[in-house]
Model the fold of this input.
Amino acid sequence: MKFSFSSEQEEFRSNLRRFLAERAPTKEVRRLMESEAGWERAGWRKLNTELGLTAVRIPEAYGGQGFGFGELGIVLEETGRALLCAPYFATSVLATGAILNAGSEAEKQALLPGIASGDTVATLAWVEDDGRWDGAATTLTATPAGGGWRLDGHKSFVLDGHTADLIVVLARAPGSSGEAGLSLFTVAGDAAGLSRRPLKTMDATRKLARLEFRGVTAAPLGDAGAAALPFARTMIEAAVCLANEMAGGADRLREDSLAYAKMRMQFGRSIASFQSMKHKAADMLVEVELAKSAAYYAAAALDEGDDDVAAVASLAKAAASETYLQTAIHAIQIHGGIGFTWDNDTHLWFKRAKSSEVLLGDAHHHRELMMQRWAA
Amino acid sequence: MSDITEDEVRAEVRAWLAANWSPELGLVEWRNKLADSGWGVPTWPKQWYGRDLPAGLGPVVDEEFQKIGAIGVAKAGIRTLAAATILAHGTDLHKEKFLRRILTGEDTWCQLFSEPGSGSDVAGAVTRAEMRGNKWVINGQKVWTTSAHHAHWGLLLARTDWDQVKHKGLSYFIIDMHQPGVKVQPLRQMNGHASFNQVFLTDAEVQPEFLVANVGDGWAVTTTTLMHERRGADGLRTWAMGSDRKGRAYDEERAEIATTMEPYKWYPQRAGRVDLVMPRAREAGRLADPLVRQEIARLLIMSKAAEWTARRARAAQEQGRPQGPEGSLGKLVASHVARAAARVHTQLSGADALLTGTDSPMGGVIAEILVSVPATSIAGGTDEIQRNIIAERVLKMPKEPSIDTTRPFRDVPRNTVS
Done:
């Protein structure tokens, strides 16, 4: 297993960090998070024309750059640090993953070049009102209709679901249950019979929507009834990617609160000189470095085709869930009263930590998934 | 820096081993060959028993040794710390006199830093070294000294100037442990073992040439030794294990390990024995309990992430890159893992955790974990000191205003017990 980044990867990371610091400063995060869409097409284009971010993990045959999860993980760590307001996770992790894992050659040829160029913003809709993260809970149905398919039902907690141009939907054959009868479909964001309502999210930087499907015409993605495996694979990849994004956010919070502690004077000295602060800062570093190690390892496990990748992905997500939130709690505490104000930026990352903790399943959920692999 | 490739090194060491290694050699005879050829410590300087290989190629050589079961230089115990310190700060005379016999295993070493009155605050040492005639004369008491009862040499920190501030009044010596002024007494621990000793120094003598660095530079040298000690605590260190192969060299190595490693035999238990958690859970029929599953998962996540963090640090080191913060965390992380493991072992054992020895699970191994883990967060620098080090050195947080470094050491308040 690979335990270090190459110098090319390090250079990629530092370029990206510089770019995001310039183009997506916290002021911009605050402006975009106040909007209903949560992102803007112009900024998204720049991200993709100048850096090719949506192309990173798409194979060259479909207009991408053909990199692996090592590079994708770097992008996510950096966008997580910057709290970038863009439909990147939805498009490049969830939708791209589902299409690559489930799609036929022709479907990949048809769908991926638009994503790689940044023209198509896409997402994956699988969770429903009951908030279960596994595909088996799906109730939305797909019925053959006039040589095509129609979808009926609802989806919820859909990342960027109200703004995506293309929605990948997990559906089941009427009367089927569990993992049998699951299929994936693609639907245009403006399809007839689809109504989309943005949900009020506690983390304003991560937009969610509830989608209502009433006889929506859909195109199949992959073989009918065979979505369980490619969907599960997509969830594993998503957990790894989210863990990397979270590690980036946690590290940023850690650094910012350390800088604040060094600057803040009380009792005639910098509060960073107090042992209680030092011990907290050391503990935060330990937690964040462990979470990073797990996230990096999981990305390498995906790239290297490790058999244990499902367990390792859950391990990384569980570690990141606990670490990011704990780091955010410490960060607010270090800032004191100012850290509880709206004007101070800490709460933006705190809320991202909370939303990330829950998204794709919390730490308990992933610890159990891990044990199902290791203690069957 | 040599630009030799991995393949070249492999070919070279293979050929050399093929021509030289035999299990029928005497252990010391074999290790002398290693010292002469440089293959025992290939990343050391050529002039001192090495081959100047870049750090990244060290493991390649180790691999070739392991493939054919060739024995390496003596590595266990304090002698590696002594070697690292002497390489960094010693005179040519020290290197000539000590390094070879460290590598061959003929000499064992101990570390005389801690005192009853200075544990975490090692620089508060009050053992005196005074020049009398043409010798240094040492008086004082040291404690927590592993292997003192069989060591030939000791790494000694002592105070040479009481009018200097604390850290400037210390000097570092190499002391002959086999002399009338050195008395060694074992110290019994809460887990029943006696791995450590108290060492009483009463007019013990040190030859002037066995001063390491200059008078007053003792703290800098001590820091080197401690740094190597912490680096060894990252959880990746493999315990010296005797091979069960046949041959004179193997027999002699088994005897050496039995002596050198004797004080460390409970150390795996001290680290929490994460490896035993799943088998114990299975054996106790507890794997279906969701609470148990959560606790085991928490532990495994921490221990895996700790292992991967240590590997990241090692990978950076092997590529010759500056180590990131991940390199300084190992010791603190290891004690978190140990505590978590002890908690899970207690949970898995239930009422059996009340027992010890032959009445308890695994003939006492589990009980030994429970009463050994508290040492992990103390020995080799407490968790609190580790956090201070991380905060001040890695995170560059300002030191606390100190009251013990701004006046002559003789005026600093200190423990009165001896």
Observations:
- Residues 123-225 of chain A form a domain with the Butyryl-CoA Dehydrogenase, subunit A; domain 2 fold (CATH 2.40.110.10).
- The CA atoms of residues 368 and 375 of chain A lie 10 Å apart.
- Strands of chain A lie at 122-125, 141-145, 148-159, 166-172, 182-188, 194-198, 208-221, 265-266, 269-270.
